[in-house]
Structure formats: structure tokens, C-alpha cells
Amino acid sequence: MKVIITQAEAVEKGIWSQVMSMFGVDDEDEVWPKEEYILTEDQARKLELIR
Q1: How far is 23 from 19, CA to CA, in rounded Å?
Q2: CA triplet 26, 24, 50: central angle to 5 degrees?
Q3: Which domain holds residue 25?
Q4: Which residues are 6's β-sheet partners?
Q5: Phi, psi of 11, rounded to the nearest 5 degrees
Q6: Is 4 helix (H, G, I), strand (E, B) or coil?
Q7: How far apart are CA 16 and CA 7, in angstroms?
Q8: What is the pTM of this model?
Q9: pLDDT one-digit tens code per residue, 6-23
């Protein structure tokens, strides 16, 4: 299973810094609120998006 989350959703859920780390994004990179990140099932579980 894959889970898709946008940058805006990650910020809203308070997990944006963790998503940034998972995808190698840093503060200097330009990102858009609707930019999508595809998480594996294990990543989604670590972020507590699914159980």
C-alpha cells in the first residue's frame, strides 16, 4: 500500500519536518502546498497516519 500526503497536509498534521527528513528536503528547497509525497506503508505507520 502507498499513502500520498501533500506538503500542506503534512504541515497541518505537524509531521512536515519528519516528511522532509524522509525525502531529503531541506529548508532551502522550494516546495508547494499541493506537492505530493508518496509514503510506503511502513513510513505511514511511523508517522501514525495509519495503524
Answers
A1: 6
A2: 110
A3: 2-47
A4: 36
A5: -65, -45
A6: strand
A7: 7
A8: 0.91
A9: 999 999 999 999 999 999
Q: Distance (Å, rounded) from C-alpha 37 to C-alpha 43?
A: 11
Instruction: Report yes or no: 31 and 5 within 8 Å, Cβ to Cβ.
Output: no
Please list the residues that pair with 1 across neighbouring strands.
none
Phi (first) and psi of residue 34, to 5 degrees: -95, 5
Cell of 37: 509525497
Q: Where do we find the cell 508517522?
A: 47
Q: Give the total number of structural domains in the chain.
A: 1
> Which amino acid is located at 35 in the chain?
E
Number of neighbours of residue 47 by Cβ within 10 angstroms: 17
Residue type, 6: T
